[in-house]
Amino acid sequence: MFVSVWARFVKTVLIAGTGYLEVLRIIDDINKADDCEKLKVIGFLDDNVENRSRNLYGHQILGGFKDIKRFEGSYTINTIARNTRLRRRTTDLLTGYGAIFINIVHPGVCLSGVTLGTGNIIGRGTVIEPGTKVGDHNVILHNTVVAHDSEIGSYCFIGNNCSLQGANSIEDEVYVGSGTTSVPNIVFGSRSQIGINCAVVLDVASDSVLISSPARRLR
């Protein structure tokens, strides 16, 4: 039987969780790029039955996380992102069911000189400078800059339009809200949560929560 060259090199992908559908657009851009390995989404897995009615743009929920065993040879990406502790727990659960994880990186992102783990999602317009190390199962949204010689642990979430300067150290399960900036050589302690539009100029202790001033009505 004849099998096309494209079909022989395609990777089938299961998406765990239904909360970040933008991953479909990233995969679409990957498939349009000439020099990227092709990906085929075969469906979603979700343990939350309330999500069964969601519009998944032509895709279906094929079952819960335990059903991953039905799709031997497929890769998995966990899109549960904003709750970093839940991301860790669900990743552990998927691993127990035999998941093989894959990175979903927008083709416009240059990773030259970057050390990248597995299970990461990196959105369009993101710049990760050389010398940076990115661990496993992180989500870095669109248009963020991670400057040179920084280190990101695992299970972190970094929102849109962040600017993290050189030699920052972001430990495990850190949440960085959209629009946040930092000065160089900052340590973000494990499980810390940084609100949107924060300017981080001092080290952040583990398990701490930082917020910026909210908008105020003047008239």
CATH topology of the largest domain: UDP N-Acetylglucosamine Acyltransferase, domain 1
What does the overall shape look like? globular
Could you name the ranges where pLDDT drops below 50 across 5 or more consecutive residues? Answer: 1-8
| Residue fraction in strands | 15-25%
Gyration radius, in Å: 18 Å
Total individual domains: 2
The appropriate CATH architecture of the largest domain is 3 Solenoid
CA(first)-CA(last) distance: 72 Å
The helix fraction, in percent, is 10-25%
- The computed structural class is alpha/beta
List SSEs in N-to-C order.
HEHEEEHEEEEEEEEEEEEEEEEE
Q: In total, how many beta strands? A: 21
> What's the arrangement of strands in the largest beta sheet?
5-7-10-13-16-19-21
Q: What's the CATH C level of the largest domain?
A: Mainly Beta
Provide the CATH superfamily of the largest domain.
Hexapeptide repeat proteins
Counting H and I runs of at least 4 residues, what is the number of helices?
Answer: 3
- Major sheet: size, sense and barrel closure? 7 strands, parallel
